[in-house]
Amino acid sequence: MTDLSVPPAAGACGEGAVLRERGQREVFCGLTGIVWLHRKMQDAFFLVVGSRTCAHLIQSAAGVMIFAEPRFGTAILTDRDLAGLADANDELDRICLSLLERRPDIGTLFLVGSCPSEVIKLDLAKAAERLNARLFPRVRVLNYSGSGIETTFTQGEDNALKALVPLMAESTARQLLVVGCVADIVEDQLARSFEALGIGSVRFLPARRAADLPGVGPGTRLLLAQPFNGETVRALCARGAELIEAPYPFGAEGTAAWLGAAARAWGVAQDRLHAVVEPLAARAQRALAPHRERLQGRRVSFLPDSQLEIPLARFVARELGMVPVEVGTPYLDRQMVAAELPLLPAGVRLSEGQDVERQLDRLAVDRPDLTVCGLGLANPLEARGYATKWSIELVFTPIHGFEQAGDLAEIFARPLQRRARLAV
Ligand code: SF4
Questions:
Q1: Helix (H, G, I), strand (E, B) or coil at 301
Q2: Is the dihedral of CA 262, 268, 269, 274 positive or negative?
Q3: What is the Cα–Cα distance from 275 to 333, expressed in whole angstroms?
Q4: Each residue of 181-191: pLDDT tens digit?
Q5: Which of 85, 122, 159, 242 could staple 117 via S-S, CB 3.0–4.6 A?
Q6: Average pLDDT of the chain to the nearest whole number
């Protein structure tokens, strides 16, 4: 029978020493979140208020959409705006109004702050208020920061979701709220499992339509799908919601434990839980087996980038038999990874923040078989003979749940297979 309680690793990492670094970092900014958020919320438009650099980042990260009308864009701040010679507020209002006139399908408009808009202190909260006074209820205008100052790229999602919390109605109804953006296909699979377990009602944040907001209150229990939405979770808890502590639904064991935690909170009978979860977990384990064979004993280092590092290190160690050497995270939000830390293997070096030169020195000593890192470091590291995996791919790709366990394992296996082929 599948063990859904997940015992901690022997001599687990838990509360051990954390190497804290505060030097130069190599990470993308929060604007990157628009790439997956605009795909999820189909009635939303993300208008970055930024420079040409911001526009290039978004355009190249998201790819150019030729046949579809895109749901993101950049209102470019010109030299006159930056020098304070033009009233950027008037210009922004004009751009928003003309966009909304052209695009009646937009129900929620996010004004996304950037480094330049923050440097010139353009008040996007005021701009949203001004535009709402003219446009609400046809369109709802919200704002959040996607700037790269002191952030990492997944914080863009946290900031966007947190902006939605004040709009959620007060509710005392009993409901499960899954927090964190997941692909539609994953949402459907997870929803089917909750239904089979008799857990309801279940809502997802974000929903497919940004305007389709659940209520929140003392009857709401939160189950987290992503580990980087700490601010959103705290805002929801301040509204009376309660967090269900669970590992993240990565891999067979992680997903079983995640569903098991929800089932316990709902008082689902053990028999029913096992009847639903066991066949799915067994299939996921079969999908993992060939990858485990190839990856067992291979050493892996995670450089701080996505905030997914700790749950993924747990997954590769426990379900693929890999050996995490260093697990770096941009910042250690202990509340978000409380159920994950005890599952990390003993002896793993946990680091928070980055000092890129020192990080590379440690990497040169460690020489892991695989390095999971940001795009900016991947190519130079490949040139030095390291096998790498872009951590951003793990955010763009559906990796949650039983059905995706094999695909998730393959993401770690592929760079090593490619190296092996090249070496022949
Ligand atoms: S928000 Fe800042 S870090 Fe991000 S692309 Fe714009 S200027 Fe660069």
A1: strand
A2: negative
A3: 34
A4: 999 999 999 99
A5: 122
A6: 92
Ligand 1 atom at shortest distance from the alpha carbon of 147: 1
Q: Pinpoint the alpha helices (H) of 245-354.
A: 251-265, 270-295, 309-320
How many A from CA of 355 to the centre of ligand 1? 20
Q: Which atom of ligand 1 is nearest to the CA of 148?
A: 3
Whole-prediction pTM = 0.93
pLDDT at 86 over 80: no
d(CA 155, CA 45): 18
Q: Which residues sit with their C-beta closer than 6 Å to ligand 1? A: 29, 31, 50-51, 53-54, 57, 114-115, 146-148
In terms of phi and psi (left: phi > 0; alpha: psi -120 to 50; beta: otherwise), the region of 347 is left
Tell the residue nearest (CA) to atom 6 of ligand 1.
54
| Confidence class for position 87, pLDDT limits 50, 70, 90 | confident
pLDDT of 343 higher than 90? yes
188 Cβ contact partners less than 8 Å away, ≥ 6 residues apart? none
Could you tell me which of 128, 49, 127 has the C-alpha nearest to residue 89?
A: 127
DSSP state of 206: S
Q: For 132-183, what is each residue's pLDDT tens digit?
A: 999 999 999 999 999 987 778 999 999 999 999 999 999 999 999 999 999 9
- Angle CA(148)–CA(46)–CA(171) in degrees, nearest 5? 100
Q: What are the structural domains of the chain?
A: 18-25+288-423 (3.40.50.1980), 30-151 (3.40.50.1980)
| Residue 308: half-sphere exposure toward Cβ, Cα within 13 Å | 26
- Centre a 10 Å sphere on the Cβ of residue 57 and count the other Cβ atoms it contains: 23
Give the angle 309-315-317 at the CA atoms, nearest 5°.
100
Q: How far is the centre of ligand 1, averaged over its atoms, from the C-alpha of 307 (Å)?
A: 19
- Ligand 1 centroid from CA 81, angstroms: 16
Q: Average pLDDT of 299-324? A: 97
Token pair of 244 as six digits: 């269900």
**C-alpha count within 13 angstroms, C-beta hemisphere, residue 380:** 11
Q: What is the pLDDT of residue 1?
A: 43
Helix (H), strand (E) at residue 58: helix 52-62
